[in-house]
Specification:
The chain has helices spanning 4-29, 62-72, 87-90. With 91 residues, it is an all-alpha fold. It has one domain. The chain is elongated, with a radius of gyration of 18 Å.
Amino acid sequence: MLSKKSSAIILALLILGVISGVILTRFLVCPGVMFEARIASQPIQAVPSISCEVCFSPGGGCKSRLIYWFGRANNTIHIMVTSFTLDDVGD
């Protein structure tokens, strides 16, 4: 059995990993969009759109989102999949 301190450290690392994955995915899939600053008074011009989605699904559900995007793709789809396996957390 893990101590409360060890469990807290593992949980913090897991959360940090998920947050890092979301930020990295957002940056890789939509470069420039994440850090783009816009002045509120200027109108936004129409540009080709880039659709991004981050899916975190410990209980399932990402499969249906992938199938949805496969069906909508006009040209290519870029996917990043990250898996965390910690037996101690699962217990």
